[in-house]
Amino acid sequence: MRSFSCFARIATAATCGLALAPMGAGSTDDARSAVFGVTLPTGYRDWRLISVAQEAGSLNDIRAILGNDSAVRAFRDGTRPFPDGAIIARLAWQHVPSAANNAIFGQAQSFVPGAATNVQISIKDSRRYAETGGWGYGQFEDGKPNRSEALLGSCAPCHARAPQFNDFVFTHYAP
Ligand code: HEC
User: Fold this and answer.
1) Exposed end of the chain (fewer CB within 10 Å): N or C?
2) 168: CA distance to ligand 1 center in Å?
3) Which long-range contacts (CB under 8 A, 24 or more apart) does 170-175 make?
4) Distance 120 CA to ligand 1 centre (A)
């Protein structure tokens, strides 16, 4: 059953009953994304590749899904639920045509990453994030945490719609 209290509506740290560290003015809490208090993991850019994806429409981006060692191991072994400490990073860039590559191919066919848009993080901590299936979520632009409670409140309700066997995760490992 997935009737967690904060899946039903826009979640805040309070409505999700999350035990976040107290926010001190001007402290290192500045690194925390809204609602879940997730920070950008050190070294995530060097993590291994789980898969890639492309979103059209208003997002119109191209993305890479990376995982820390724990997440990659679980993906490869098919371990579900994911173990505590597993972190998945979704990096996205604008999806832009490459004139330079198209000139080589002799026709318009090449798309490459443009400017980075944002990095989204899913981190498994079954106790701290018990109210949201054990997952905490964060979003970062230019390395800075997104402070929007509405945005961060939208993550868990939608990820609750992922196939149940995949533990709130949409991505499948690309072999
Ligand atoms: C409307 C539904 C929806 C919302 C809201 C949403 N996601 Fe996702 N998310 C998806 C889907 C679908 C995918 C897989 C496709 C893709 O990567 O483009 C995904 C992929 C991901 C991934 C890669 C791992 C996985 O679960 O597949 C991460 C990390 C992630 N989202 C984090 C977040 C964060 C953080 C937020 C909130 C700021 C968020 N998502 C909001 C639907 C959603």
Assistant:
1) N
2) 9
3) 171/50, 171/51, 171/53, 171/65, 171/88, 172/51, 173/50, 173/51, 173/75, 173/76, 174/49, 174/50, 174/51, 174/52
4) 8
- Residue 46: exposed, middle, or buried by beta-carbon count in 10 A (0-12, 13-18, 19+)? exposed
Residue 153: which of 4, 25, 2 has the closest Cα? 4
At residue 18, the pLDDT reads 56
Asked whether 132 lines ligand 1 (CB < 6 A), one says no
User: What are the pLDDT tens digits along the chain (175 aa)?
Assistant: 444 554 544 445 444 445 454 444 444 568 999 999 999 999 999 999 999 999 999 999 999 999 999 999 999 999 999 999 999 999 999 999 999 999 999 999 999 999 999 999 999 999 999 999 999 999 999 999 999 999 999 999 999 999 999 999 999 999 9
Beta carbon of 139 within 6 Å of any ligand 1 atom = yes
Ligand 1 centroid, distance to 140 Cα (angstroms):
13
Q: Which amino acid is at 64?
A: A
Ligand 1 near 137 CB (within 6 A): yes
- Cβ proximity of 168 and 160 under 8 Å: yes
Tell which atom from ligand 1 comes closest to the C-alpha of 89: 29
